[in-house]
Amino acid sequence: MKPSMLAAVDVGSNAIRFLISNVEELTPDKPVKKNAYLRIPIRLGTDVFLYGAISEQKQTAFLDAMTGVAHIMRAYGVDHYRICATSAMRDAANGQDIMNLVREKTGLRIDIITGLEEAQILFNANALARYTDVNSALYVDVGGGSTEVVALRDGKLQEAFSFQLGTVRILANAVDPAEKERFRTEMRRLGQTYAPECVIASGGNINKVSKLLEKRDGKPVGAPELRALYKDLLGLALEERMEKYGLNAYRADVIVPALDIFLGVVDMSGAKQMVIPKIGLVDGIIRHMWLNADNLADRACPKAPH
């Protein structure tokens, strides 16, 4: 594929993430270049997990955000793009109507992807490239609405799972107890089957944890460090978390359930440590587009409306 300006958007339950990358070449050990990156803190999941639909207020904010995304794409000269919507938009009763409105107003096409598709795209982000000495690992992405887990052996995908277990869903008290039990059962089984040497973790919350623990360049994090931070955060009020750790309001509440999920994976799978390569769904989308260049005919950046 010739050099291209590509854009990826992750419409998540807790936020929207938008990445533009001028891709000249992608090799397994080369991270996706970030020409522009924007996080838009629109939490769609709260409405959906509590009431089953996205409110008018959030719809307006979302349309404004997508209008801005379209303008920025054109300003950067984006050639092709892909927008993937995950758990919240999947579950929203009015999700399709909202996507149709965005298409009508901005020309942007949004794809709702399943949890397993999400896991596959995350795998395409190539998190293992920097850890060639790791024979077996679990790649875990904790989002606002769901958690994706990929079992890896010798760099190859063995199994992939999506659990309706995410930070915003937990805060909304909207997790099915049966799903919690399925998560626990599978984590124990994966531990017995693959004996993972580490957990490769992704998501905005664990990236923030990496920064708080000053773990640069993918330096491993031990379970005791994670547990100590979790216990400290758990004992603080939201305002205290913001003051002590410099957290934004949109991060101070969800970081605790995220750590709880990650610790659950580490404990139940028997993994001894965690590595945090700071990649996510948008990185996987860019790489997936690059590897599937022949299928981008309908992904051209929309022209400005007259």
Topology:
Blueprint: E1 4-11, E2 16-23, E3 36-40, H1 44-51, H2 56-76, E4 80-85, H3 87-91, H4 95-106, E5 110-112, H5 115-124, E6 136-142, E7 147-153, E8 156-163, H6 167-171, H7 177-194, E9 198-202, H8 204-212, E10 221-222, H9 223-234, H10 238-245, H11 249-252, H12 255-269, E11 273-275, H13 281-291
Helix pairs in contact: 2-4, 5-13, 7-12, 9-12
InterPro entries: ATPase_NBD, GppA/Ppx_hydrolase, Ppx_GppA_N
Organism: Desulfovibrio desulfuricans
Protein name: Ppx/GppA phosphatase N-terminal domain-containing protein
Give an account of the 3D structure.
By secondary structure, the protein is α/β, with parallel strands linked by helices. It folds into 2 domains: 4-115 and 282-295, Nucleotidyltransferase, domain 5 (2-Layer Sandwich), CATH 3.30.420.40; 128-278, Nucleotidyltransferase, domain 5 (2-Layer Sandwich), CATH 3.30.420.150. The chain contains 13 helices and 11 strands. The chain has helices at residues 44-51, 56-76, 87-91, 95-106, 115-124, 167-171, 177-194, 204-212, 223-234, 238-245, 249-252, 255-269, 281-291; strands at residues 4-11, 16-23, 36-40, 80-85, 110-112, 136-142, 147-153, 156-163, 198-202, 221-222, 273-275. A hairpin with a 2-residue loop joins strand 7 (147-153) and strand 8 (156-163). The two termini are 32 Å apart. This is Ppx/GppA phosphatase N-terminal domain-containing protein.
